User: Which sequence fits this backbone?
């Protein structure tokens, strides 16, 4: 039982990270109806910018954070401007494939910058272990988890209370209707890429805090995509729940099944869950069910 | 169907012929003869490049059928090729079959496996299906890594194929297996897409609900598309395993699957010649990066000592974005325009 609780806690912590990666993708999909693979790379570059700020330039944490957020927001804006906007009016799948082209372009640059090394900034953040009863977990995980919950809260408040957030919700509903009520859909698209890139940077920081910056970091974006699909592509609460569910499932299944099959269950549990969920609920757990017409 | 001025079809056979004029027959026979003589004429490096190219063409041809014609985007092609390579290795090495039997059998086995991999397409489509095929890729590769029969992380070694005591153990010799198989598979695909089945695929791609209303059985045709596509992947995998003499999981990563989709986009979705254009252009680009990157590394030391991998990926991404934005119908579209203008020369229309 204690083993189970330990796995549950670790799973929840990791799930918080997955949820925030997924949140960035959900943000983009809600308003633009494009699934973005590029956010995995934005995570990587954001974390790298933070590393440069903290380790190379020895900036205070808060300044480095602002710098990293600004850098990735600019990156998101640039991607929207250069790669997404020319494809408005084309089939949505072209946009999806273009985010994948952007992923590849940035992946090459990321590899060139890293040169196979791994970079860590966790020495500059609180560390150690926290014990609570019989359960122990590293403090880095807790910081990342709480940080991602804060980001979720911020997003919820933003969508609920600000004018821009309201515009984004209207755009998510229907592009033409939103345009006719005076919302600039283009401006919303730009804003949504900036916002989601900043969110992805939080995710990248939280991930890099646990795993360090390595060339595999952007590929965590694919796992975020899986989480977003399990939760339903339009749903932020879905992303949070699916992320937590996935984190718990991965850790618990790895804890109990690894001895039986010889390890590695953790790598594949997410994908098995995705296939099962999609077979039962094709639009994810909380996704909008589309009624198709000819 | 447009044809050159002065060419008239008087019989049905002539109307449906793929090669329709004497000039084209001459070009076909001539180019086949040159292709057959290539291993004698050109250096070893070029022959191995051609082998690689031909296997990739078979693989992307399968992807073209399921994604370009039937509209079910699949990121699982690398995993399906892995299934083909491993099943071929098991057939020839563990069960002692001959290569010639294992070649179609591994195709059929991969096709059956693809029915499982393609099953989600019945319930889901679009982005959801694309990501589901990514999931299929990871689950498949995980299984390959964790089963005893596939040799886990060691992979399987393969003996070269032989025929009546003659062993196909060099690239030049394998060329004479790979090239005919590639031509045969191309011929099959070229014919398939203009039959009843091919038209059903196109209808499913353009609007699957409308296709269903017209009486096309979605269940049957989507799974058939996955079966055929995986058959191609299986044959490609079998050839690949017998060319490199090993079946190893690192040869089939998700990045490979992404490259195959990219080749399809560059070449043009929904076109058989497009497969050749895409594969050749992307492969040449790849080779070009290999040549250019040491030069760049010498000029710009901050790129590091081995920038080829990173530069290759970036160059590929740039080409892909270029095609998606400025030439979404791919090189095949340019090819059609070129053919039309040659046919009409010296007139503009």
Assistant:
């Amino acid at each position: 039982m204690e083993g189970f609780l330990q796995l549950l806690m670790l799973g929840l912590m990791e799930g918080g990270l997955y949820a925030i990666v997924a949140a960035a993708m959900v943000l983009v999909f809600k308003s633009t109806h494009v699934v973005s693979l590029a956010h995995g790379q934005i995570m990587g570059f954001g974390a790298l910018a933070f590393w440069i700020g903290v380790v190379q330039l020895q900036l205070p944490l808060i300044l480095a954070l602002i710098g990293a957020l600004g850098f990735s927001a600019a990156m998101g804006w640039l991607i929207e401007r250069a790669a997404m906007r020319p494809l408005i009016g084309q089939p949505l799948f072209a946009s999806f494939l273009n985010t994948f082209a952007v992923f590849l372009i940035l992946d090459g640059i990321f590899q060139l910058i890293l040169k196979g090394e791994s970079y860590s900034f966790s020495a500059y953040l609180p560390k150690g272990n926290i014990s609570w009863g019989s359960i122990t977990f590293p403090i880095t995980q807790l910081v990342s988890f709480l940080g991602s919950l804060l980001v979720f809260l911020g997003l919820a408040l933003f969508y609920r209370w600000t004018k821009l957030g309201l515009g984004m919700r209207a755009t998510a509903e229907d592009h033409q209707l939103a345009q006719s009520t005076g919302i600039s859909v283009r401006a919303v698209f730009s804003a949504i890429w900036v916002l989601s890139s900043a969110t992805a940077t939080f995710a990248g920081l939280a991930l890099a805090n646990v795993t360090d910056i390595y060339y595999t970091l952007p590929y965590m974006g694919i796992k975020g995509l899986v989480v977003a699909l399990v939760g339903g592509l339009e749903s932020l609460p879905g992303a949070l729940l699916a992320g937590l569910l996935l984190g718990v499932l991965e850790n618990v299944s790895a804890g109990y099944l690894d001895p039986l099959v010889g390890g590695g269950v953790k790598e594949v549990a997410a994908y098995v869950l995705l296939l099962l969920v999609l077979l039962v609920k094709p639009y994810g757990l909380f996704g909008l069910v589309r009624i198709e017409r000819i | 169907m447009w044809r050159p001025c002065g060419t008239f079809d008087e019989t049905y056979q002539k109307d449906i012929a793929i090669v329709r004029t004497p000039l084209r027959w001459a070009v076909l026979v001539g180019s086949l003869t040159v292709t057959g003589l290539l291993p004698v004429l050109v250096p070893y490096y070029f022959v191995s490049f051609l082998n690689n190219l031909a296997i990739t063409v078979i693989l992307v041809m399968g992807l073209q059928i399921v994604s370009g014609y039937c509209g079910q985007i699949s990121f699982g092609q690398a995993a399906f090729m892995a299934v083909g390579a491993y099943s071929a290795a098991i057939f020839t090495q563990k069960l002692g079959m001959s290569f010639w039997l294992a070649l179609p059998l591994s195709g059929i086995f991969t096709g059956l496996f693809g029915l499982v991999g393609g099953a989600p397409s019945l319930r889901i489509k679009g982005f959801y299906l694309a990501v589901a095929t990514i999931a299929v890729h990871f689950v498949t590769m995980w299984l390959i890594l964790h089963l005893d029969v596939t040799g886990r992380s060691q992979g399987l070694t393969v003996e070269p194929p032989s025929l009546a005591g003659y062993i196909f153990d060099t690239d030049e010799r394998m060329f004479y297996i790979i090239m005919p198989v590639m031509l045969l598979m191309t011929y099959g695909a070229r014919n398939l897409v203009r039959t009843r089945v091919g038209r059903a695929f196109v209808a499913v791609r353009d609007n699957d609900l409308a296709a269903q209303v017209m009486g096309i059985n979605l269940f049957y045709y989507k799974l058939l598309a996955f079966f055929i596509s995986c058959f191609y992947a299986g044959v490609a995998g079998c050839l690949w395993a017998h060319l490199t003499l090993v079946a190893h999981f690192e040869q089939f990563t998700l990045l490979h699957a992404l490259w195959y989709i990219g080749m399809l986009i560059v070449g043009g979705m929904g076109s058989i010649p497009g497969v050749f254009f895409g594969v050749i252009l992307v492969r040449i680009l790849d080779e070009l990066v290999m040549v250019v990157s040491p030069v760049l590394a010498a000029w710009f030391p901050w790129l590091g000592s081995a920038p080829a991998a990173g530069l290759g990926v970036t160059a590929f991404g740039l080409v892909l974005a270029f095609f998606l934005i400025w030439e979404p119908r791919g090189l095949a579209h340019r090819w059609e325009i070129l053919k039309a203008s040659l046919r009409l020369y010296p007139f503009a229309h």
In short: Chain B touches chain A through 46 residues (CB under 8 Å). The mean pLDDT of chain B is 87.
